[in-house]
Structures are given as structure tokens and as C-alpha cells.
Automatic annotation (TrEMBL):
The gene is Galk2. The keyword Nucleotide-binding applies. This is Galactokinase 2. It comes from the Eukaryota. Residues 308-383 form the GHMP kinase C-terminal domain. Keywords: ATP-binding, Kinase, Nucleotide-binding, Transferase.
């Protein structure tokens, strides 16, 4: 739980799936970085190991590797790196909201660190990879990279930021999580959807801060407004109701609220691929973020208290999360909504989109004793009869337990 709130400064509650990304690597004496992929859909790529250039206009597969590589290079201030031959393999469905891109960035960072014979803590690696994935052009937070490194088998994690830390959250027995892929692919770096939401949250934070008499120009995240005011998330929802209106804000209205010019808005606040946006929904985005942050804490509390109806309570929080993603954050799509409805109809206690949205997967909480019938029913209702979905179902519908984080296997 915790969709689209990490980049707003709030804690999230993810678990790692059992699927993974693997890179076999061998250092070479030349300064050439040679990348190959076991999947023929992803062509080979070669470049010099120094002066890495990442093209933000084309989120090609190898650019995610280059993000992790460049992150380690810049962290240590290295100018001359050895070359590597790398073979990439993985069974995470791409563009499905299961963080295949972040897994590749993290794997590349770990591979580079290992070849260089250097050491960093898992927390340091997570922070470097979260920062370096932004080279691709998405203004994301750090949830995906953090769980990629800090995950432990058998437990979910509460991930907190500034400073980054992780706490075990034991999930209730008697239920399993099921991933179902809508088969609508969404690469968040290929559109402006994701960055527009980041910018709307940033603008909402600034307008809320100005409304409450805070130093708004220093504020970047919605969590900072709450911290400055020293009030609860529930109270922040009331502040949002009072300070923001539901109608979209024009650029001119935002400038009037903040007392700045259009040029200042464009050059000092908006990111390059959001400068063409004419309107911004501030109220809806802030409402989602503050309510979702509260749901994360409630989810953890339920897991810790472990009442008899824990699965039911957790399922309802997941359902609330999806409604908020759909209605307030507008990051769902018709196929995801259909799939969520199907999953609930056939016994899921809770179901929601996972990942950035606009396509990709749902995650559902399903009683363990009904798993077989649930999988069969969802297969028939969503995949059967649709040839394109059916062809991809092998990697599209599966139960998963909390998996472990990144590992290095050294050749004996």
C-alpha cells in the first residue's frame, strides 16, 4: 500500500515479489560496456564505459542499466571505469507496474559496484538508485528501489524516508497476494502522466503552504506542509478541503495564489515535460496523498494488532486505495477497473492497482483456502476469450509471497 506518495515524502508499505531481474557480468580489459538480453525483443547495446549519456526522449531498455551504472560512477566520482560484458535476464512482466525498470536500475548499480570491488550499505545503494533512475526523466520517489534492496523473505516492509529506513510488517496468515496483469502496458517514462502528477502534488504543497502562511517557496512535498504545521493527516485533509477547490487550477490562478509571474512558474517550478500543461488538479491529488498516507499507517496497525478480521480490514483499505487512485489521482484505466471488479467478485477481500497505474497489474488479497477457485475464475472472466491476454497469461496471473532483496552470486 502507498501509491504515488513516496515522492511526496510519505512512508509506503511494499513487499518484493518473487520474480526477479538477473545480470551475469564479466569485466573486460577494454573500456566498453556491452549489454545483451536473453529476450530478443531487447536488442544488444554497446557504449564506452565513460561519459555515459542517457537519452530521456527514448526510454529504451539499456538506458535503465545506464542509470544504475552512472549512479555508482557519480557517487564515487570515477572518471575511468573498466568495461563489462553483461547478459540480462528476468521474469518480471515489463511495463506492468511491478517495477521491472527499477529492478534493472538496481541490478545494474549492484553489478557495477561488485565489478569495481567497492562496498556500500543497502540503504546507500537504494538511495543512489532512486536518484539515478531520474536520469531517465521520471521524477519518482524511492519505494521501488528501497524494497529492491531492503526486502526480506516472508515479510512486508514499512519504508520511511529522510532518513531511509525499513521496518518489518508481518502479514496475516491465511491469505495470499495475487498479481493479475491487465495486459495494458504503461511505461511511465514514455508519457508525461507521471511527471504531471508529481508536479500537481508539488504545486498543491506550495499553495497549501502559502495559504497557511508558511515559507512556500522552500516547500517541495506535501509531507513538508504537514510537518511544518505539526498536525495529523486527518487534519491535513480538512486543511485541503478549506484551502483548495475541486475545479482545475489554471497556470494564471496558480501564479496569482503564489504571487509569481508565468515566467517564474515555468522556469523555477515546472519541470521540462510539464511546462506545456494548461491546468492542474491540486485538490484531488492532495486528497489522495494525505488519505493514502493515512491508509499505510492503518494497514501497519492492523497487521500489528492482528485481530480476527484482519484480512477483511486490510482488504477494505486496499479497496479504498483503488477508489482513490481511480477517482482522485486518475491513474487507473478501464481494464484495471474491470480486473479489480472481477477479482472482488470472485473472492478477493481487497483489490487495487499497483505501480504507477494507467495499465499494468492489480494486487489482490485472497483467502488461501479459496486460491485455486479464485485463479480459475479470474482466468475465465478476464483472460479466456481474449487471445492477446491469453497469450501472456503465464506471467500475468500468479500468487506471490514476500520475496527477498538483491543478492550477488560470485563464481566459485
Amino acid at each position: 500500500l502507498g501509491e504515488h506518495i513516496d515522492y511526496c515524502g510519505y512512508s509506503v508499505l511494499p513487499m518484493a515479489v518473487e520474480q526477479d531481474m538477473l545480470i551475469a557480468v564479466g569485466p573486460v580489459k577494454t573500456q566498453t560496456l556491452q549489454l545483451a538480453n536473453t529476450d530478443p525483443l531487447y536488442p544488444d547495446f554497446s557504449t564506452t564505459a565513460n561519459n555515459i549519456c542517457i537519452d530521456k526522449t527514448q526510454p529504451l531498455w539499456h538506458n535503465y542499466f545506464l542509470c544504475g551504472f552512472k549512479g555508482i560512477q557519480e557517487h564515487f566520482g570515477l572518471t575511468q571505469l573498466p568495461g563489462m560484458n553483461c547478459l540480462v535476464d528476468g521474469n518480471i512482466p515489463p511495463s506492468s507496474g511491478l517495477s521491472s525498470s527499477s529492478a534493472l536500475v538496481c541490478c545494474a548499480g549492484l553489478v557495477t559496484l561488485t565489478v569495481l570491488g567497492m562496498r556500500l550499505s543497502k540503504v546507500e545503494l537504494a538511495e543512489i538508485c532512486a536518484k539515478s533512475e531520474r536520469y531517465i526523466g521520471t521524477e519518482g520517489g524511492g519505494m521501488d528501489q528501497s524494497i529492491s534492496f531492503l526486502a526480506e523473505e516472508g515479510t512486508a516492509k514499512l519504508i520511511e524516508f529522510s532518513p531511509l529506513r525499513a521496518t518489518d510488517v508481518k502479514l496475516p496468515s491465511g491469505a495470499v497476494f495475487v498479481i493479475a496483469n491487465s495486459c495494458v502496458e504503461m511505461n511511465k517514462a514514455a508519457t508525461s502522466h507521471f511527471n504531471v502528477r508529481v508536479m500537481e502534488c508539488r504545486l498543491a504543497a506550495k499553495v497549501l503552504a502559502k495559504h497557511k502562511g508558511l515559507q512556500w517557496d522552500k516547500v517541495l512535498r506535501l509531507e513538508e506542509v504537514q510537518s511544518e504545521l505539526g498536525i495529523s493527516l486527518e487534519e491535513m485533509l480538512l486543511v485541503t478541503e478549506d484551502a483548495l477547490h475541486a475545479e482545475p487550477y489554471s497556470r494564471e490562478e496558480i501564479c496569482k495564489c503564489l504571487g509569481i509571474s508565468l515566467e517564474e512558474l515555468r522556469t523555477q517550478i515546472l519541470s521540462p515535460n510539464t511546462q506545456g500543461e494548461l491546468t492542474f488538479k491540486l485538490y484531488q491529488r492532495a486528497k489522495h496523498v494525505y488519505s493514502e498516507a493515512a491508509r499505510v499507517l492503518q494497514f501497519k496497525q492492523v497487521c500489528e494488532a492482528a485481530p480476527d478480521n484482519a484480512v477483511q480490514l486490510l482488504g477494505e483499505l486496499m479497496n479504498q486505495s483503488h477508489r482513490s487512485c481511480r477517482d482522485m489521482y486518475e491513474c487507473s484505466c478501464p481494464e484495471l477497473d474491470q480486473l479489480v471488479d472481477i477479482c472482488r467478485k470472485f473472492g478477493a477481500k481487497g483489490s487495487r492497482l499497483t505501480g504507477a497505474g494507467w495499465g499494468g497489474c492489480t494486487v489482490s488479497l485472497v483467502p488461501a483456502d479459496t486460491l485455486s477457485s479464485f485463479l480459475a475464475s479470474v482466468h475465465e472472466a478476464y483472460y479466456q476469450g481474449n487471445m492477446s491476454r491469453l497469450a501472456r497469461e503465464k506471467h500475468s496471473l500468479f500468487a506471490t509471497k514476500p520475496g527477498g532483496g538483491a543478492l550477488v552470486f560470485l563464481e566459485a
